[in-house]
Amino acid sequence: MKRLSGTNAEIAELLYQEQLALAKQNDDAEATVRQIIAAVKEGGDQALRDYSAAFDQIALQKLEVEETLIEAAFAEIDPEVLTALEHAKENIVSYHQQQLEDGFEDQPEQGILRGQLIRPIERVGVYVPGGTAAYPSSVLMNVIPAKIAGVKEIIMITPPQKHFAPAILVAAKLSGVDKIYQVGGAQGIAALAYGTETIPRVDKITGPGNIFVATAKKQVYGLVGIDMIAGPSEIGIIADSSANPKYLAADLLSQAEHDVRARAILVTTSEALADAVEMEIEEQLQKLPRQAIARQAVEQNGRIIIAENTEGMFELMNQVAPEHLELAMADAYDYLEKINNAGSVFLGHYTSEPIGDYYAGANHVLPTTATSRFSSALGVHDFIKRIQYTQYSQEAVKAAEKDITALAYAEGLQGHAKAIEVRNDRS
């Protein structure tokens, strides 16, 4: 892992330059994705079959995953995995139910009524990655908040497989997916956005994916809503002298094994702890089945930052604005107020990030590449719309006329002013 030291200002500038470089990584995929989207718009189902043959080496007869395959998955799944999924579902439901919003209505003055309606999005598409690993947890995390919000129809897409991991199909059924289609990549995002003969258009697309999926979501945004443009997985850890280097190394590697582009960042004031963590990482890498991926990630994108003091640790990590943030500190809860930018926070020496990935109930679809500076974890709020309403009586319009028309004329919008004046018998 690359070690950064110096003044806080010097390290902050280095981190900023790295963030600029990360932001440009998706540029190379733009042209390829644009071509794929155009092909799906034009060719529909046949384009999806063609891309499946080219990218996945699977000749698809049917795009929809049949109910018999889902039933077979329940018969095939490891009973312990099924139980774990059911327990995780309970925790995700109990957490996200607390995010439900109510509308409101008030009457600030006689003749004036104001309010807000809460309405669910009607149809949502959920992307579930395939590739080097199957993620049933992503199914639960995307679908359950949508169901709680009241979304009427949830369409799931996932890359075609010769044999689907049973847990993926079981998780879809447990969480309430209405239909599953075996299509992945940028072509799957295009199908959800524009519709094909088989796959219906949706109103919003959520779910993580690779660089082509992320770029496709960016390009169809506006035609449909999206949750976020997610980058590689990240973990940041703030550690004091009470931290266990064995725990820190394991947690850093837990994210590094996702992707060669994953980022693992440790901030501490202790050179001795930094040395011990580096030794532990090397030892643990030797035993990790996904060693090749994790090693490349930590060597290229791993950072150990030596801060000047405790305050500096938080200042620098707030700039990193990581997807996952662990506080490996004594009395970690007492430092929670110092965190301004993070997707999800894990407090204390025993709250390892995978607890959040799988089980605790807080969502694991999180903002990456410093976007937690302005965005949040996926939740029920992502699947609702807020619709405002207002009613003024004739008397209330007359009382407000002077203020409204003064602003309208100041903006040079005489038509706006006339629309008020005409209601008070003026030409």
TrEMBL record:
The reply on keyword Phosphoprotein is: no
Catalytically driven reaction(s): L-histidinol + 2 NAD(+) + H2O = L-histidine + 2 NADH + 3 H(+)
Q: How and how many cofactors are bound, per the record note? A: Binds 1 zinc ion per subunit.
Pathway given for this chain reads:
Amino-acid biosynthesis; L-histidine biosynthesis; L-histidine from 5-phospho-alpha-D-ribose 1-diphosphate: step 9/9
Under the GO molecular function aspect, what terms does this record hold?
histidinol dehydrogenase activity; NAD binding; zinc ion binding
Q: Does the keyword DNA-binding apply?
A: no
- Record-listed E.C. numbers: 1.1.1.23
Q: Which CDD domains does this chain map to?
A: Histidinol_dh
**Cofactor(s) demanded:** Zn(2+)
Spell out the family assignment given in the record's similarity comment.
Belongs to the histidinol dehydrogenase family.
Its protein name is Histidinol dehydrogenase
Provenance organism: Streptococcus chenjunshii
* UniProt lineage: Bacteria, Bacillati, Bacillota, Bacilli, Lactobacillales
